[in-house]
Automatic annotation (TrEMBL):
Organism: Flavisolibacter ginsenosidimutans
Name of the featured protein: OmpA family protein
Transmembrane segment boundaries: 43-63
Region (Disordered): 81-109, 430-455
Keyword Transmembrane belongs to the record: yes
Alphabetical list of SUPFAM superfamilies matching this protein: OmpA-like
Alphabetic keyword roster: Cell outer membrane, Membrane, Transmembrane, Transmembrane helix
Compartment(s) of residence: Cell outer membrane
InterPro entries on file: Bact_OuterMem_StrucFunc, OMP_bac, OmpA-like, OmpA-like_sf
Length: 463
């Protein structure tokens, strides 16, 4: 099994220090001193018992380590006392037992967390029907995915600390997905992508990468010709520069003639996003093209996509550079193409039921992913504007796993959606009931990836 490790970049946040009243500074310092003295007495007794078994060097090392540990733990306790005092000074209400026990702290933390870590500015809603889905779960590691085509090599790999399988894309290579279906006029495309960059020596220009959609003009969408000539019929793509001065540019071609080119969208320093997973969402409505990176909307251009030749392929390309192949690359997974324009309001209020695959969860869990925010926001808006409407939320799963586990999981997921609507969108919980059907009511074939993705859905039924 191929496995790739990487180091994630962390962001350090600083907070301006403000002077604090000396009214509580002396008791805190005194408390710290008392704690240190008490802990040192107890440790001295332990060390006396160990002296016959330790060399002088060992004893010296233990004394230093013990001193550091005592100071560290005392500081931690003082920090808690200072936090408590600051809360009182600021007028914050104290909750839980008076001894600030661990259980109370954990409970308060959970209560203050949102039901779902949502993208506040994210308004993407996926299409109704899934045409193509790919997570490489059935593909052999170390090989190019089945039914895909590439101008060089590609490998399905796993990544330390991240779930699932990923396509590793290498430099100077174009990749065509295994899709065979036309997208139609209105469709959405989603995928997770990580720009892998761990150079041994820095200084070279980092390679750009692109994602595009094309029309094959009636021939096989995976034909070799599109590896070199994606502009042959109809082509729209975004070119990304992942560097200190990152940017993105959208272009369209029809029969090799450029029909549109956007200004370069400045995205600032993209280096901190290297080796982190970003969720990309694309929405096409006839000629209109929108793209989000996580919750950031990068493009919203009304007349960017050529009409007439229906798109039916998604492709990826990574440029070359002076870096070695183990120092830079792309990792791609969770690709989903869906067609149609979901009409949440009409389906829920007039038809009485709205079903969506756009509320996503962690694998085998009821934790809602942040890219579900667009759908939840729409549901929340409909319920707020129609206060007399009551609904039942019903969770569904695919057939992977046992019947019992899937049934329980579907119920927990519907409860998680209710919790999100109540906490994050202020919907009265009395208006919402929940249920789960597990894998018992499929709407598509569980033998295909697309069918499984369609079956992993959440239904909202008007009562």
């Amino acid at each position: 099994m191929s496995c790739v490790g990487f180091t994630t970049h962390s962001t350090v946040f600083t907070v301006d220090a403000k002077p604090v009243s000396s009214a509580f500074s002396t008791p805190v310092v005194s408390h710290r001193t008392t704690k240190i003295k008490t802990m040192r007495k107890k440790l001295s007794i332990l060390l006396l018992l160990l002296i016959p078994f330790l060399s002088q060097a060992q004893l010296g090392g233990l004394l230093k380590k013990a001193k550091d540990k005592i100071t560290q733990r005392a500081d931690a306790k003082v920090d808690k006392e200072m936090d408590k005092t600051l809360d009182q000074v600021e007028g914050k209400k104290q909750t839980g037992p008076s001894d600030n026990s661990t259980v109370a702290t954990e409970t308060n933390t959970v209560e203050n967390k949102p039901a779902v870590k949502s993208y506040s500015k994210f308004d993407f809603v996926p299409g109704e029907k899934i045409l193509y889905a790919e997570d490489f779960a059935q593909d052999a590691t170390g090989e190019l995915p089945l039914n895909w085509n590439a101008s060089g090599k590609g490998e399905v790999q796993t990544i330390d600390g991240k779930s699932g399988k990923w396509l590793r894309a290498f430099e100077n290579t174009t990749y065509l997905t295994g899709n065979k279906k036309n997208f139609g006029e209105n469709y959405t495309i989603e995928f997770d992508l990580m720009y892998y960059f761990e150079p041994k020596v820095k200084g070279y220009v980092m390679p750009n990468w692109k994602v595009g959609i094309l029309s094959s003009g009636g021939i096989d969408p995976t034909d070799n010709s599109f590896l070199k000539e994606p502009d042959e019929v109809n082509n729209t793509f975004v070119n990304f520069a992942f560097s200190n001065y990152g940017g993105a540019q959208l272009s369209s071609y029809a029969k090799r003639v450029q029909t549109f080119r956007s200004d370069r969208m400045e995205m600032g320093n993209m280096m901190p996003t290297n080796n982190t997973v970003i969720h990309y969402s694309i929405q096409v409505q006839k000629t209109r093209f929108r793209l989000w990176m996580d919750e950031k909307k990068v493009f919203d251009i009304p007349r960017a996509v050529n009409v007439g030749d229906t798109m039916n392929q998604v492709y990826f390309h990574l440029e070359g550079s002076n870096y070695k192949e183990d120092e830079v690359g792309l990792f791609i997974t969770n690709i989903k193409v869906a067609t149609g324009l979901p009409d949440t309001r009409h389906k829920l209020l007039d038809e009485g039921k709205f079903s969506t695959t756009g509320i996503l969860f962690d694998v085998n869990a009821a934790t809602i992913k942040p890219e579900s925010a667009g759908v939840l926001k729409e549901i929340g808006a409909v319920l707020k504007e129609n206060e007399g409407v009551k609904i039942k939320i019903i969770g569904h799963t695919d057939s992977d796993g046992s019947d019992g586990a899937n049934l329980e999981l579907s119920k927990k997921r519907s409860e998680a959606v209710k919790a999100a609507l109540v906490k994050d969108y202020s919907i009265d919980e009395g208006r919402i009931s929940t249920d789960g059907k597990g894998e018992g009511q499929p709407v598509a074939d569980n033998k295909t990836k697309e069918g499984k993705a369609q079956n992993r859905r959440v239904e909202f039924v008007k009562l």
